[in-house]
Protein 1
Amino acid sequence: MTPWLWLLAAYFAGSLPTSYVVGKAIGGMDLRREGSGNLGATNVYRAMGLRVAVPVALVDIGKGWLPAWLFPMLDGGAASGWAAAYGAAAILGHTFSCWMRFRGGKGVATAAGAFLALSPVAVLAAAAVWVLVFAGRGIVSLASIAAAVALPAVVVVGNAVRGAGDPWVAGLAVLSGAFIVWAHRSNIGRLLRGEEGRISDDRRARRGEDG
């Protein structure tokens, strides 16, 4: 296949609505009408718990990793930049799924998967930032925004220090980081107003528990 067909395949790989399928198959629910209405692993956790959310997150990571890692080996020696393009297509597929009327998740897990193939050190750094922010505040959106800012910073600074690196990967890092921050714009508004809840509070509220 030509790189353009692999690009389309990457979009379709990313567009697989993992959380929707799992919500329907296991919980008999439409996650677009549960919790935040977002089709990502965080909303799966809110609605169905950790044992379901973790496999969903791993599949969403795989949807980004597989096109960025495998497709460049199969595209007939396409020029540099196509690996980043496949990762970008997977992220867009996850966020704007053609199966869900172009709704989806916010791209965090799928972007992490793409960069596991493209720049694994940057993903480890961003994951460390995510864990630190989440441990300190308990707010998934804030941790995700912080990680989305950290990842391109690590890629760009790393390229500058080494005096080398793939400019396409750096460009995707900047664009995907900005895209994920944009996807969290409603969360940012709630954060600024002091209204964004902790994930533990969401789960307690769903179970009908106190404080």
Note: The CA atoms of residues 81 and 168 lie 5 Å apart.
Protein 2
Amino acid sequence: MIKLSVIIPVYNVEDYVGKCLDSLTAPALASAARGEAPEYEIIAVNDGSTDSSAEIVQNYVNRYPGFIQLISTENQGQGHARNVGTDAARGEFLYFIDSDDYLAPGAMQELLDSLGDDFDIMIFDSVSVNSDGKEISYYSGCRRDGSINLREFPELLLENPICGGSVCRRHIYADNGIRFPSRVWFEDFRTLLKLYALTDRIVHVPRAWHRYLQRPGSVTNNRNPERNLEIIPAVDDLIQFYTGLGRGEELADVLEYMAFHHEFLTASVRVNLADPKSPAQDTLMETFLTEFPNYADNPYIKSMGRRHKLLTWLLMRKRRMAVHLIMKVNNLIKDKKV
């Protein structure tokens, strides 16, 4: 039986995909040494790469026949590649990892050993690293350990979803028609947060198995301010999803704060760092205020820390150069710690 299908979208990552695959194959080698079939499979989906990424993956396919497979498609984006991998998967669980990320030594076996019958989704932790593998910051997958569900812990929707930081039973995707959107930013955000409504059997394991590479060109480091506006339809999609399930009123405060944090605060700061004069900041603020004019009464917003309250005050008053300077200094301090 195949416990897990590991799905890797591949697009122009010739400098990284080998490290990703190396971090995933140790348990398969151990199984082969014992004359056993591995408990998992790896599906790499080449999304129209124009560099040598596909050739590198094919070398691994040749070394691990029947264990790693390569599927090639025309370039249609990471979301589409994940969907192609999902359609080909045979595992009980699905794990999506980006091709420039990787797992810590020994993590693949630990992850496999942790898969059981008592949960449908397992969330774990990530460590962001630079291109040299040096640790930048620790990302906890959830602020609660052990068993959790959305009814008892609605703040689960406020966690930052990272595809490489969770596994989910394949039938949750299949039974509910969950698909990743194509050619958009924030596809993790608008897909993974839907899964929490579809099962109460969720667990957080506080183990930092995933290594999340921060490199130029990623969403968090991209210098194109306008693309941050894609968070607006992403937030709208999630709110409509939960409203359609009849849970909009139950989760009203959480959904409003989710919109505030992602659509207004985080996106505005990201745009501001790229270009403090960008009109995208006006669009983000006006869209949010139109939908949530009474946001200041939200209990989560009232309980924010001083830093977020200060940034909110400055952004709402269009003190954008002040925000730019604060975040530049903040990033300089952060860089010195790395």
Note: Strands lie at 4-10, 40-47, 68-73, 93-96, 102-103, 121-129, 135-139, 146-148, 166-169, 202-213.
